[in-house]
From TrEMBL, chain A:
Spans through the membrane: 86-107, 184-210, 231-252, 264-284, 296-316, 322-351, 363-387, 393-418
GO cellular component, one term: GPI-anchor transamidase complex
Membrane topology classification: Multi-pass membrane protein
InterPro entries linked: PIG-U (IPR009600)
Compartment(s) of residence: Endoplasmic reticulum membrane
Keywords, in A-Z order: Endoplasmic reticulum, GPI-anchor biosynthesis, Membrane, Transmembrane, Transmembrane helix
A Pfam family: PIG-U
Organism, scientific name: Tetranychus urticae
Superkingdom of source: Eukaryota
Family: Belongs to the PIGU family.
Protein name in UniProt: Phosphatidylinositol glycan anchor biosynthesis class U protein
Pathway membership: Glycolipid biosynthesis; glycosylphosphatidylinositol-anchor biosynthesis
GO BP annotations listed: attachment of GPI anchor to protein; GPI anchor biosynthetic process
From TrEMBL, chain B:
Pfam families: Gpi16
UniProt KW Transmembrane keyword: yes
Lineage, highest ranks first: Eukaryota, Metazoa, Ecdysozoa, Arthropoda, Chelicerata
Cited InterPro entries: PIG-T
Keywords, alphabetical: Membrane, Signal, Transmembrane, Transmembrane helix
Organism superkingdom: Eukaryota
Any single Gene Ontology cellular-component annotation: GPI-anchor transamidase complex
Protein name: GPI transamidase component PIG-T
GO BP, sorted A to Z: attachment of GPI anchor to protein
Signal peptide segment: 1-18
Transmembrane region(s): 514-533
């Protein structure tokens, strides 16, 4: 235990030093200017612009540079007026706290999952149970790995160096995970409300959060949506969350005096008018869209970003913590303005699910895609924007490949999960050569 | 009944006054000024004054000389003041000094509407479309995304008696990419009372004047005092043309000039409608080594002293000269000049306040705009800087820095209106005190927006033009100023507006041939997610039923053929 604490504090210190070094170095501006890191909704430059406009008595929502909600603007204003020199420090601390929260959350989650699975494992033959079980010893190890990965993942380091506001969002997400792993559903729901208020898309997190809390309430027993008590608590919680969101919106209205900020924030996210390249799927698609089809595809794409939560909340009912991870990947995949910090948070959480890795097939492919895209994206950008020797298709190709990689990862994870679920319910079926039998999906 | 009508008629008769033509007046002049580097600056000015308030112009008024098209247009759109100009070429501020009016490349429109205009934006829209029809210019491209309402820079030229000046009624737009050519000049000439058939306007021969180093065309409408007590106003239309010729290029390398050679034609007929028609030649330089002779000798000359700055003009009365020629049966009217000695090129002192603006940075994503303002006076000078940047160059106002001789200075006033995508340009206005003998640098950073593939102008990779910034100031002396001999009544120097260079900014472009491919590719990727997730969530896992046959290749091929 002592040893782990020493190791962890060593890691934290080292992660902190790296961040502080980069933020104060001359690389800071270079990293902050990268479109993969800073998007129209999270870049610190735009936040500073918003605060500057506010100080000049101009509403930041009058122009088209600032796209965050009033309460966050107030917060940035507070930071920039009172702690201007300390901002790099604040960002670095928040980011390493995020790592810590993620690690604690995954430790708690693994413990809970292990507890929940105990009943199911006890029904299986002991040899199968041994294979499927999450080893008690590895839990601390895995959550330690989560911490290490978050602290030293280049993506999270870059997001923190650029001082993107996603650092704060990631912190809130990690806090949500932590609180939900403690079973504090009120705080977790409030955090989801805050996240939703900020950028709308995190509303998807409400599904896993409610499911985890419901499952904790039921002491890990599987629950059905049909049961009256579950139904009641789920609905009441979601209504409470929605109420909280509307309260936040009302507060913002009273601060700014009007609902004008809607068009610069939520409408901006939903109508995708800014085609600045990012690592998502929207920018080039809508820049190249035929005008008469724009509306149709906009609706299709936006519905597509939200639609997955409903079937997944049915399929992943037994393991809502896993659903949380899947939702994070979906957010990173289908948000109109994603950045590397969305990638960082779920990549850091992957070690928690090592027990699924044995059933995954595309691990190598996905890793290769991520690595090659990370190398190619800056190169293609340089060739297109700086040298003028390439064109937009080069960069678009890279972002497309990256998103295919994410899709492979999400489907592979889901399939691995379903496989393990099958084995958990039915035991590992082997053929005469002691090899596990092939599984297939069937509609029956 | 008839009786009642008759009585009413009798009673009302004194009230009905028959519309009589409102008095109007027309005068024309040409100012020829040799510039310090040997070029010749020609400034034509055609002035029509209607002795009626601009607020009460009506269709029923019978205009004699006042252009009907403009009269209608003013009364319909309730215009108080209008300045429209088109320019081609670059006015070399550093060597040529301050011109009478400064017009950079492209078109510029500045309108002040009357206070009681019920719908200013609609009027503005109508004004741009009417002018674009009237002058064959693409002013219809001026939309909300190109329009600003300057707060400090554009002060009215005319006088306000009937209503007060409200900055909210001022509209300003410039189109830097607008090309100026004959098709703009011809309709412009048609507004003149004698068209281009007689008078000084007959010198405006398109072939010659578009073959010049600088050309600008303008139309100004404003209110002026009708009498010295200024209790009534008149409406004045000033049409002017500015042309800069390079004599050595036209006279086999010699420094001489003649009106016939410049304009390709001589004055054959005077405009009988003009109350005065004069040609002024500035002869101030004749005190120096580069003195020249004029022929024919001028009738009179004007000498004036502007706070120590002496100016001399030779004056020719065109009407008298043509009359004289006609009496002597000479039909060629010409003025020409020759230098007495070899022309000496000298070091030219630039004006005391100059401004230059340029783009900084590399690549087509981030960049900056820098404006360098030089003040070579030994005292501080107040200036107003106005910059209108199109929305697709997103200005970050927090990066605005103003340094003078490397010391940060604070503007006395800063007005900023952030741009909105496709609706509103970025608008920066700064009132600034330039320290004595200083080099002031204003910089701000921008980020280029990525446009839709349908939003790019033709030849997208050429880039887009950003209109010039305007620097307005009240000069303290007359040094380097071009003075029109007819405007010598005021003792204070006029407000000077100088313009910086237009900017050419390249924007990042998408591949214009890709829309269909992109739609296909992205949709495929979305389906790649949708399909498997749909499968995984709607189906159950089970042990794959492995058929005994069909495990090896031979069987599979066999099976394939059996099935078909």
């Amino acid at each position: 235990m002592m040893c782990t604490i020493i190791k962890a504090s060593f890691l934290l210190a080292f992660g902190f030093i790296i961040r502080m070094f980069l933020i104060t170095s001359s690389y800071q501006k270079m990293i902050a200017d990268r479109v993969e890191v800073s998007t129209p909704v999270n870049s610190w430059r735009r936040a500073v612009e918003g605060v500057t406009l506010m100080k000049l008595n101009i509403s930041p929502y009058e122009g088209d540079t600032f796209h965050e909600v009033p309460l966050f603007l107030q917060f940035y204003h507070f930071l920039l007026t009172n702690f201007e020199q300390w901002i790099p420090l604040i960002f670095a601390i928040i980011d390493i706290l995020t790592g810590l929260c993620l690690s604690l959350a995954s430790y708690n989650q693994l413990k809970t999952i292990k507890r929940w699975e105990k009943i199911r494992l006890s029904k299986l033959p002991s040899s199968d149970a041994k294979k499927l079980e999450i080893p008690e010893k590895s839990i601390a190890q895995l959550s330690f790995r989560v911490l290490a990965i978050y602290l030293f993942l280049p993506y999270s380091i870059m997001a923190c160096t650029a001082q993107t506001t996603s650092v704060l969002i990631n912190f809130l997400v990690s806090l949500t995970m932590l609180f939900i792993s403690f079973g504090w559903r009120v705080i977790a729901c409030s955090l989801v409300a805050l996240l939703t208020y900020h950028s709308f898309y995190p509303i998807l997190l409400i599904f896993p959060v409610l499911m985890v809390s419901e499952k904790t309430n039921q002491k890990g027993k599987s629950f059905t949506y049909a049961s009256k008590s579950s139904c009641f608590s789920l609905i009441s919680c979601s209504i409470a969350t929605l109420l909280l969101i509307s309260i936040l919106v009302m507060i913002s209205k009273s601060i700014t005096g009007s609902y004008d900020f809607f068009s610069s924030t939520y409408y901006f996210l939903l109508s995708v008018p800014d085609f600045t390249p990012n690592i998502g799927l929207f920018w080039y698609f809508f820049a190249e869209m035929f005008d008469q089809f724009r509306e149709f595809f906009l609706w299709t794409f936006q519905i597509n970003s939200f639609v997955y939560s409903i079937p997944l909340s049915l399929t992943l009912k037994n393991n809502p913590n896993f659903f949380f991870l899947i939702t994070l990947i979906l957010l990173s995949l289908f948000k109109p303005y994603p950045s590397v910090s969305d990638l960082a948070i779920y990549l850091a959480l992957l070690p928690q699910w090592t027990h699924l890795f044995t059933y995954m097939k595309q691990g190598l492919l996905v890793a290769c895609v991520f690595i090659s895209c990370s190398v190619l994206a800056p190169l293609m950008w340089h060739m297109w924007i700086i040298l003028g020797t390439a064109n937009s298709n080069y960069y678009f190709g890279v972002t497309l490949a990256y998103n295919v990689g994410q899709i492979f990862l999400i489907t592979d994870l889901l399939f691995a999960y379903l496989k393990r679920e099958f084995y958990l319910s039915n035991g590992i079926k082997v053929d005469d050569k002691d090899k596990p039998l092939k599984l297939e999906l069937s509609a029956e | 009944m008839t009786l009642i009508y008759f009585l009413t008629f009798i009673v009302l008769l004194p009230c009905v006054h028959l519309d009589e033509a409102v008095k109007d007046d027309y005068s024309e002049s040409l100012l020829i000024k040799p510039l310090p580097d040997g070029m010749i600056y020609n400034h034509f000015q055609f002035k029509t004054i209607l002795h009626q308030d601009i607020e009460y112009l009506h269709l029923e008024n019978h205009f004699d000389r006042f252009p009907l098209a403009i009269g209608n247009f003013i009364s319909k759109n309730l215009i108080k003041e209008l300045t429209f100009s088109l320019g081609r070429g670059h006015w070399k501020l550093n060597t040529w000094g301050y011109p009478l009016r400064y017009q950079p490349n492209g078109a510029e429109l500045w309108v002040t509407l009357q206070n009681f205009n019920p719908n200013p934006w609609k009027s503005w829209k109508d004004i741009t479309s009417t002018l674009s029809g009237l002058f064959c210019a693409s002013l219809n491209f001026i939309d909300k995304a190109a329009t600003t309402k300057p707060k400090f820079s554009l002060k009215p030229d005319g006088i306000f008696i009937n209503d007060s000046y409200r900055p909210d009624n001022v509209f300003y737009a410039s189109l830097a990419h607008e090309a100026v050519c004959t098709e703009n000049l011809t309709p412009w000439k048609k507004l003149l009372p004698c068209f281009s058939k007689a008078g000084l306007a007959s010198l405006l021969n398109a072939v010659q004047i578009f073959n010049s180093n600088y050309f600008a065309l303008s139309l100004d409408v404003k209110s002026i005092c009708r009498n010295p007590s200024c209790n009534e106003t008149s409406t004045e239309i000033t049409q002017s043309v500015q042309v800069v010729f390079n004599p050595p290029a036209m006279f086999e390398g010699k420094h001489r000039w003649s009106i016939v050679k410049f304009f390709g034609t001589s004055l054959k007929e005077e405009c009988k409608l003009a109350s005065s028609s004069k040609i002024y030649v500035e002869t101030t330089v004749n005190d120096t080594d580069n003195s020249y002779n004029l022929s024919p000798l001028p009738e009179t000359s004007i000498e004036s002293d502007f706070q120590g700055e002496k100016r001399r003009f030779a004056v020719y009365d065109v009407k008298k000269m043509i009359e004289h020629n006609r009496n002597n049966n000479v039909n060629k009217f010409n003025i020409y000049s020759m230098y007495q000695k070899e022309y000496i090129y000298k070091k030219v002192n630039p004006p005391y306040i100059t401004a230059h603006r340029y783009i900084t940075g590399y690549g087509v994503y981030l960049g900056g705009i820098t404006c360098r303002i030089t003040n070579s006076l030994t005292k501080a000078q107040n200036v107003t800087y106005l910059d209108v940047i199109p929305w697709y160059l997103r200005i970050y106002i927090h990066t605005l820095s103003i340094t003078s001789n490397n010391v940060e200075i604070k503007p006395s006033k800063l007005y900023h209106k952030p741009g909105k995508d496709r609706a509103q340009p970025h608008h920066i206005e700064i009132i600034l005190e330039l320290p004595p003998l200083s080099d002031t640098i204003i910089t701000y950073d921008f980020e280029r927006a990525f446009l839709k593939w349908t939003e790019f102008p033709p030849d997208a990779n050429h880039g887009v033009y950003v209109g010039a910034a305007t620097l307005t100031f009240q000069p303290t002396n007359f040094q380097n100023l071009t003075i029109h001999p007819e405007h010598t009544e005021s003792l204070d120097p006029p407000t000077i507006k100088i313009k910086t260079e237009n900017l050419l900014v390249s924007l990042p472009t998408p591949d214009f041939s890709m829309p269909y491919n992109v739609i296909c590719l992205v949709s495929t990727v979305i389906t790649l997610a949708f399909g498997p997730i749909h499968n995984l969530t709607t189906k159950r896992a089970r042990i794959a039923i492995q058929s005994k046959e069909g495990s090896n290749l031979k069987d599979r091929i066999f099976k394939f053929f059996k099935r078909s």
